[in-house]
Amino acid sequence: MPGSEFEQEPPQFERLQKVLARAGIGSRRVCEKLIVEQRVTVNGEFAELGEKVDPETSQVEVDGLKIGVRQDLVYYLLNKPIGVITTSKDPQERSTVVDLVPTHPRVFPVGRLDADTEGLILLTNDGDLTHYLTHPSFGIEKEYLVQVEVKPSRNAIRELRQGVELDDGITAPAKVSLVDEKLLKIVIHEGRNRQIRRMCESVGHPVVRLIRSRIGPIVDRSLRPGSFRELTNQELKSIRKILLKDFSN
To answer: Would you tell me how many other CB atoms lie within 10 Å of the CB of residue 148?
Structure first.
């Protein structure tokens, strides 16, 4: 009977700690601890240990951070080749990053890489995580290997580290090191249009080749250009750990 104490929950309901663990927050033990510490809310209310949620409709947050818990969420890591456009669809019908991953479910690139820039990019249908990874306030680092024409001077490297004046403002301080005579490693957490290229041009060192080699904690030197794979649960967990700055196992 409707309303009866014997009425069963819909089959999609799952225990919250299981849902959080699947989303890459941590082990079930860690997730249970977060719930007990009242760091988890469901639909705006503090969660209770043993609570069941609907992954399709429940709004789950940890420390105020929205956590995607739908079962159809996917996270791809792609090594973008030169010439591929970072968009979902190109009016000129050029090859896009979305063309290189499965068509279902539909995913979107996280941030942008220029057509002439190669390297790692994430694609997902998790809009909340996309926002956190691209908004500069969360400080997610992006590491680039930058080949220039001649060896940069110490003064040029110092300028890049301190921040350089661009037409849209001074860049935030960057981590810059000389890897080889004409090869720089530059780490930034901003995401302005063609930022690395413009930074290097501003100090007199136009970019010859640009490769994104790391996104936050995500690195994969074995992924060949044009290839992709799904993020592992451990990699998702490592991203969440950076976003939840005081989170620990």
So the answer is: 21
Residues of the chain where predicted confidence (pLDDT) is lower than 50: 1, 4, 6, 248-249
- Kindly write down the DSSP assignment for every residue of 18-87, as one continuous string: HHHHHTTS--HHHHHHHHHTT-EEETTEE--TT-EE-TTT--EEETTEEE---TT--EEEEEEPTT-BSS
Which listed residue (114, 116, 128, 180) is catalytic? 114
Q: Taking the model in full, what pTM does it have? A: 0.88
173 upstream amide cis, omega within 30 of 0: no
Here the tokens at position 86 are: 């970072």
- Say if residues 106 and 93 touch (Cβ distance below 8 Å): no
Tell me what pLDDT residue 10 has. 55
CA distance 131 to 123: 12
Q: Is 99 a catalytic residue?
A: no
